[in-house]
Amino acid sequence: MSKDVLEQLGIAPSVRQSEPSHDSDERGADKAPEKKTDPIVEVQEATFAYGRNTILEFVEMQIHDSEFWCFIGPNGEGKTTLIKALLGALRPRRGLVRLRADFARRTRIGFVPQSCDLNPSVPTTIQSFVTQGTAGLAVDESKLRRRVQKSLEVMGVQRIRERSIWKVSGGQRQRAMVARALVRDPLLMIVDEPTAGLDLAASSGLLKTITDLNRQHRITVIFVTHDLQLAGRYASHVAVFKNRRVTCGPVGDVLTGENLEWAFGVPTKVRAEASGGFTIRTELEHPEVVA
Fold this sequence. Notes:
- The chain is an alpha/beta fold.
- The chain has helices at 5-8, 13-18, 24-30, 79-86, 126-131, 141-154, 170-182, 200-217, 228-234, 251-254, 257-264, and strands at 41-50, 53-63, 68-72, 94-99, 109-112, 188-192, 220-224, 237-242, 245-250, 268-272, 278-282.
- A hairpin with a 5-residue loop joins strand 10 (268-272) and strand 11 (278-282).
- Helix 6 runs antiparallel to helix 7 (170-182).
- Residues 10-32 have low confidence and may be disordered.
């Protein structure tokens, strides 16, 4: 796994920070006078529903550059619903979801779904699947091809690029999905349980790639997970979903035993580690790690 993912993709960090990149036409269309210190995502008093079924209400959230968010909570509590809203696929019933203008067109958002979103009856190679991630980008075709090749290499699927997306392991398919998100040169990457189905080595490698993008290159990450230990180790901010409400903020304020017991119904203890991060344990007769 590369120590510098963006360099492998042909995107110099200095270019990203101080001057227009090779996709400056796209950025220019999104240019606005807003300051980079403004939140990149702002949700204000938002309610989300499908028909008469209210999923979330009174949601308040601000996400800033370079933060690493973990969305946690039981199944069916609205994590996917809020992601759909951030991706522009669902409008709030009430309230506001606002993206900062420099990427409000969402061309700089990379999304890694929980499962492959292709029709299995359509023959698709891994390379053609990753290439689909370039749709809608105003970037020179030759540069897009180089991005695709580098993304395949970064995620370790270059050698199987001509194989069907449906004839590889679940872990390899997940890596291809991350590669498809990387080709967009994302400012915000949303990943929905990306380590599901991966063995320990593959999971660790994938997590390292995502955390490198966040910590070294200030790409904001929203990471949906059921692994509370992962949230305690990597997150700068946490959102806990339960009973139509979202409790969110810095990890030290939100990842508490009280909030986790409220969300999961199990007495829980959270301990701050001297090396940074938090360890989560259930307070049962035989304590075990909550994951």
